[in-house]
Structure prediction request, 279 residues.
Amino acid sequence: MKKIFIVVCLGLIWSSGPFGAKGKGLGLLRIKGSILMVHGSAPFNSEGRVPDERAGQYASSTFFKDIRENLESRGWKIVTYSKPGVFEHHVDYNVYKTTDLKVLGDQIRKEWKNLPSGRPRLVLAWSEGTLHVSQLPLAELDGVVLIGGISTNIREVILWQAGDEREKMEADLQEILKYPRDEMLGIDRPVGRLIDELKLPDNWKAFSSFEKLPMLILHGGSDTEVPVTQAKQWKKKLSSHQIDVQIFQEKNHIPDSRIKNLQEFLKAISQAASMGSRS
Prediction:
């Protein structure tokens, strides 16, 4: 069972710290706005890798760093962070095992408060990090980008991944509720965080009160970690909202750093801000 959870939602991290810490040093007078990038489930470091060779492709992946650099080159300031216990070349699992939903929620809210006002402020989240966006003050957001994300709940995704072993996985999820909260599920996340996430309401409900919040949903049609049906639920559940859903048939769970739809979405946000309107 634990092997399944390593595959389930290997999340992400990215690089560049708070304003002025890393990146190209864009001044406030020049930036179009700021984007907070929210981690998925795994212990990624600030260079967009999981510093643990057991993570497979995620131990060398740089896709979030690539996205950051692409957006910075277009005038956006990107704010990123490392989860507690995650460093450049290693993970301190004695610390990382404490990263339940409250710890991560507190961390991203702190990062959000560091974003300067006066320009558009957005969130870009990937994979299981799309669940964590609900921990932010959504009324303050000027836009949301969810890549390979979850519209309903983590239970549905885990059971989908289980395939023919769905019934066994149901039993495993019940058993996990008895585990110590700081026990690790593989290298991915602690039991406590999964328990917290299993208790969350469907993700789309967190956004139901924000009809004017622009949302861009990007999903690979060949995603093997989060089913593409998750992307299709957004407009069904929130039909009156400003939601654009884009499915890339040949893409899997890792996005491309040069997504045309993302650039168009950000351009529209900038134009709306210059006119003093979110819509």
Notes: DSSP finds eleven helices and eight strands in the chain. The first helix runs from residue 2 to 8.
